[in-house]
Amino acid sequence: MENTQECPAPAGILVIIGGKENKGGKEAPNRQTPAGFVEADILKRFVDLTGKKDAIIQVITSGSSEAAASFQEYKKAFHELGQRRVEHIHHDRREEVSKGSGLEQKARTSDAFFFAGGDQLLLSSLYGGSTFLTALKERYIRDDVVIGGTSAGAMALSTPMIYAGNEEVQEVSGEIKVTTGLEFLKDVCVDTHFVHRGRFIRLAQVISTNPGCTGLGIEEDTAVIVRNGVEAEVAGSGTVIRIEGFGISEANMKNFAEKKPFSVRDLKVDILATGDKFRIEQKNPPHK
User: Fold this and answer.
1) 16 forms bridges with which residues in the sheet?
2) Burial per residue of 134-166, b for 16 or more beta-carbon CB atoms within 10 angstroms, e otherwise
3) Can you give the CATH number for the domain in which 56 is found?
């Protein structure tokens, strides 16, 4: 008998940030301030998306080596936006992320979660497969919770997730390392600090080896807001590079041991800016 149960569209909203989002200063990071620049624009959008005047916001700093300072920075920024119930989640060891730790209750009752930057591989190794992550994903599917991430915290929300391979090796075929992220966005690879750190080729490599995926290269002080799991909008002062490999005709992604320069033909590339909207294509339908 055919199973007609549909996979539901997520009720929650994702805010995927390219790093160094403005927290109230006058200048955009690492470049000239663009016309129409708004201070703390992305964090304001994050708060507004909760739909509450005093939301419970959980700041997760487990990927950071400077967790206390990172939390205080975001606490101050959210306080300046009128939010007083800002709480801190931090773990150094996986055994701390256990059932009965109270994390599942926070996942079910808080209004928003914000993954700060640091090390995306640490975030995935701490929370992957945990009861906390399961509870948070269930909440994302069923409720209008807001889940955000910046820099490494943004990269961790996607799958595949880049965890190694910088500008020194990105032009060598096979030198970019990926693993499974936290999977709030499946078949999407997020890369951050994208224009400032020259990461186009490394994201192109990932898409060439995963041509059913979409690559989102997000610049600093820039975000992609995702509704219903697929409806995306750009916010902030910079650009988003969308890379699709569905039509790739040729790529030299075999014989990695030869360490040849990477090449690919017929990638589709879009450059998007604030207010631009697009749909994240689903080439790998979910199980029913």
Assistant:
1) 149, 224
2) ebbbebbeeeebbbbbbbbbbbbbbbbbbbebe
3) 3.40.50.880
